[in-house]
Design a protein that fits this description.
The chain contains 23 helices and 7 strands. It is mainly alpha-helical. The longest helix has 33 residues.
């Protein structure tokens, strides 16, 4: 990373802080009087400003064909947007009266609640140390998230790759990683979601307080949320679920404050904030499309119950949708310009083609096997007490794990919260409790149907369940604080011990082996790090090595098995496909193929079948594509 790149990243960080402070001042003028809520909602200014900066440059690049999305250009645009935002906030000059709120009183024995916070902090210290001393990780991150951001950095634009689904989805969650990739620093990528963790902590606390919970309930929600194994592991990986979930929950928090506003100006401003947060989430994963629609439905119902005028409801919805499009519209524009389908790679088929062209992902298998709906319900009935699905024990990781604290407090708390919903009161916190309980039901339905058992796809609803149940526990927590803290600490410690075992073990193993090279970490052939810049490598194995094959200088161009199948219609290679796709190298792992044609123009340059250091690592081979006719006679067959 050059000195200029370091300076630009420092400018971005300083600008981010300035933008966040401006956002905090803005929330104060809108009547958001509670500090944690103000801090959480203030995140909308720096994050939406950064995303808008990149989207603006990417749009110009998309329409012009020139590379405008560079670290320097993004920094200058972000600074300009932040200066403009501060000027607009200062120009308003009118402060709304603090919005009245109802919440539980705090008990006096609050110091004992520091113990669960200390346990959670210890978990994050272990994971942070491990992340600082390793290279980026994560299955989806290795497959397409991180290779995509380095492709953007090389090309200076955010163009998609047709028939490669991983490079076509909305990718707001990779924006911060893109900044580090543009600077050529892959070690910092593991910390790209630090701001999302801070936002998630503030939102979990604030939502619990807005439902009537005291500091004890808010601490319970905070610790349970942050200690979810899914959250902990994703906090230091290239996955984007935690990024999207944190901003979607912030959109819900902003909507709660909208429902309490006394002035139209403050209400519309907070609707814009909610829309911006929802747009950030929608522009991160398409799974947030139904979740954004869910927020819009609640918005319509709230506005109608308050004003009973279609014009006001339409205006409020318009403000929300405009905010959402600011941070997600680019992805739909990109897909429309490049493919003609605004939701590519999703398939749009209107009776064989009519309105919009049908775009399909060639050659991809169904990712999720069909399962009986009844079996799904029975299987999930025992989760998370056994933290397993289909009778197979799942280790804590990026896709699974809710933890002992969730099992101890959330199911009972949800039952109590749902029971209290039968009471008809006009209190805002009771109305929102009903809404969020309905959200939990919607989350279960989506998990069992559309989202095909993927627990991380319903991560926002898991967090909503934690918030609702924690608020319901408030009377018990205030009356039996020491007992509650003891149970919570035991549960958190059990989860922490299981979750930190893997990173601690791998960290100690790396320190013992004293080999910190990139090829050793990813267990790939060292020759990959020595290839010429821009080398195109086809990898036909099952494991996600796409990112690893970028090489030490991050300049290689790997092609994964699925992408190769989309390009050629086959999972093997021929002389024609190698030539047509300008392939320079072919990388294989055991089991090696036995059905390739003879006479391929390949020259074996690496084979560790007899020399690999770890017996548990499959043997690897690397072939160079021979492009000159006089070499073909000597080329070796890969069999």
């Amino acid at each position: 990373m050059s000195t200029v790149d370091v300076a630009l990243l420092i400018v971005v960080a300083v600008t981010w802080t300035v933008a966040w402070r401006a956002g905090s001042d803005w929330m104060r003028t809108l009547g958001v009087c509670e500090r944690p809520d103000r801090w959480a909602l203030a995140f909308v200014v720096p994050m939406s400003g950064l995303i808008a900066s990149i989207h603006l440059l990417a749009t110009v690049s998309l329409l012009s064909g020139f590379a405008f999305v560079t670290l320097g250009a993004v920094t200058l645009t972000f600074v300009a947007i932040t200066v403009a935002a501060r000027w607009l906030i200062a120009k308003q000059g009118i402060r709304s009266a603090p919005i009245p709120i109802q919440q539980a009183e705090n008990s006096t024995g609050s110091r004992i609640w520091l113990w669960p916070v200390v346990i959670v902090a210890g978990v994050y210290v272990v994971f942070a140390i491990d992340a600082a001393l390793r290279y980026p990780s994560g299955y989806d991150a290795m497959n397409y998230h991180l290779p995509q951001v380095f492709k953007w950095a090389r090309e200076g634009g955010l163009n998609l790759v047709e028939n490669h689904s991983g490079y076509c989805w909305p990718s707001n969650g990779s924006i911060v990683a893109f900044l580090f990739a543009s600077a050529g620093d892959e070690r910092m990528i593991s910390f790209a979601h630090v701001s999302s963790v801070l936002l998630l902590a503030a939102v979990a606390w604030s939502l619990t307080r807005r439902l009537g919970g005291g500091r004890e309930a808010a601490t319970l929600a905070l610790c349970t949320t942050l200690c979810l194994p899914i959250v902990v592991f994703q906090s230091f990986s290239g996955y984007v679920d935690i990024f999207a979930a944190a901003h979607w929950l912030a959109a819900v928090l902003a909507l709660i404050w909208v429902s309490r506003c006394g002035t139209q100006r403050a209400a519309f401003s907070l609707l814009a904030v909610s829309g911006l947060f929802a747009g950030i989430a929608l522009g991160s994963k398409t799974t947030f499309l139904p979740l954004t629609v869910l927020i819009a439905i609640v918005l319509i119902l709230n506005e109608w119950s308050k004003h009973r005028t279609p014009a006001r409801v339409a205006a409020g919805l318009g403000v929300f949708m405009a905010g959402a499009m600011v941070c997600s519209g680019f992805w739909f524009l990109r897909a429309t310009v490049e493919t003609g389908n605004p939701v590519y790679p999703m398939v749009l088929d209107f009776d064989g083609g009519g309105i919009l062209p049908t775009v399909s992902i060639a050659g991809e298998d169904a990712w999720f096997a069909e399962k009986s709906f009844v079996r799904k319900i029975v299987r999930w009935g025992g989760y998370p007490w056994r933290e397993s699905k289909s009778g197979q024990g799942y280790p804590y990781g990026l896709d699974n794990g809710l933890g002992a604290a969730f099992a101890a407090f959330v199911p009972i708390g949800l039952i109590v919260a749902a029971w209290r919903c039968r009471r008809k009161t006009s209190l805002s916190q009771d109305q929102w409790r009903r809404i969020l309980v309905v959200f939990c039901v919607v989350g279960v339905v989506l998990l069992l149907t559309v989202f095909e058992d993927m627990i991380r796809f319903v991560l926002p609803f898991v967090m909503i369940a934690i918030v609702v149940s924690s608020a319901a526990w408030q009377p018990v927590l205030a009356a039996r604080g020491r007992t509650a803290v003891a149970v919570l600490c035991i549960a958190l410690f059990a989860t922490a011990a299981a979750a930190t075992l893997k990173p601690a073990h791998t960290l100690l193993s790396r320190l013992r082996d004293k080999n910190h090279s990139r090829s050793w970490f990813y267990q790939i052939p060292p020759v990959i790090d020595e290839l010429e810049p821009g080398a195109r490598i086809v990898y036909l194995g099952e494991e996600p090595l796409t990112y690893a094959l970028l090489g030490e200088e991050l300049t290689n161009e790997p092609i994964s098995r699925l992408h190769w199948r989309a390009l050629t219609g086959t999972e093997t290679v021929t002389a024609d496909t190698l030539e047509t796709n300008n392939v320079d190298y072919v990388c294989l792992r055991e089991p090696f193929p036995t059905d390739w044609p003879d006479g391929l123009p390949l020259e074996l340059i690496f084979d560790d079948s007899e020399t690999r250091a770890l017996a548990t690592t499959p043997a690897s081979r690397v072939y160079r594509v021979v492009r000159h006719a006089n070499h073909l006679a000597d080329a070796a067959s890969p069999r």
